[in-house]
TrEMBL record:
Catalyzes the key rate-limiting step in the CDP-choline pathway for phosphatidylcholine biosynthesis. One of its GO terms (molecular function) is phosphatidylcholine binding. It catalyses: phosphocholine + CTP + H(+) = CDP-choline + diphosphate. The keyword Transport does not apply. SUPFAM superfamilies: Nucleotidylyl transferase (SSF52374). Its EC number is 2.7.7.15. The keyword Coiled coil does not apply. Belongs to the cytidylyltransferase family. It holds the Pfam family CTP_transf_like. This is choline-phosphate cytidylyltransferase. It is an enzyme of class 2 (transferase). InterPro entries: CCT (IPR041723), Cyt_trans-like (IPR004821), Pcy1-like (IPR045049), Rossmann-like_a/b/a_fold (IPR014729).
Amino acid sequence: MEELEHTCPHPRTTLTEPAIFAAETSCDCSAPHEKLSIAQARRGTPVDRPVRVYADGIFDLFHSGHARALMQAKNLFPNTYLIVGVCSDELTHKYKGFTVMTEHERYEALRHCRYVDEVLRDAPWTLTPEFLEKHKIDFVAHDDIPYSSAGTEDVYKHIKEAGMFVPTQRTEGISTSDIITRIVRDYDVYARRNLQRGYTAKELNVSYINEKKYRLQNQVDRMKEKVRTVEEKSKHFVYRVEEKSHDLIQKWEEKSREFIGNFLELFGPDGTWKQVFQERSGRMLSYALSPRESPCNSPPRELSPLRSPSPPSPPARWYNARPSPPNSPKGASALMSSMSEGDEDEK
């Protein structure tokens, strides 16, 4: 008997396009799908087809917790084909409650997740053996916390008993309920935010009184923001003025120290000006006490040929001769000694 080849779709290798929507049956492969164990799937068998993993949910307000769960499901086995089932609005409103996003918005959000290979619209709330066989699902991935709904304690109980359940880990601190709780808790803030962005009170389901209150609060917030901006600018201006004045004072101190140093260096006790003054005073005193003599070897004056020589002067009388004043202290002392010797000879 000739063996049939598997024609199951393979995981997408490019992320340039969104994931496909599942048709009536997501796998038209006519080859038999033998039941796999988790150990076999982790070893990479079978080699001729991917391991088909199914993960379902509501995926309202698609967030990082959803993406992490799908990432774990995608990486369970070496060759995983991930099918994600999204429940419709009718089933979700019936068993869980109202959603923020419509079913079509939730379908599109899942299609653009990089870990998803195929999106199954209008997924069933409870997985039946017929559904698993129809879509040739090998394993179901979900967190291990019992999910009580539709009159059962755990909708995945029979999947776990069949050995087809693979658990994933929840991401703490993020969930759709947490996001909705934040919005409800800060309802006034978000209502004012959307009014400021152009939404009408009717679109936000806000009464006339609340609308006026929110708009007044927005105006008050804008005034506070302007005051805060002015305060910040004034603080910045004062800081710049203080910085400039500090620089000016510092430069003034440096210049003052430099001026005082130069003044003391010039006019201080041992300054340059005192030394110059002392040198000049000593030089002037020495000039006053010992004036310069005329050079003795100076050449004689020649008579001009146009002038006649002056008559000779009469001989000087010794008794009328008076000594000329001495030119120096040494000359004065010599004169005094000669006069004293003359007196002694006369005696």
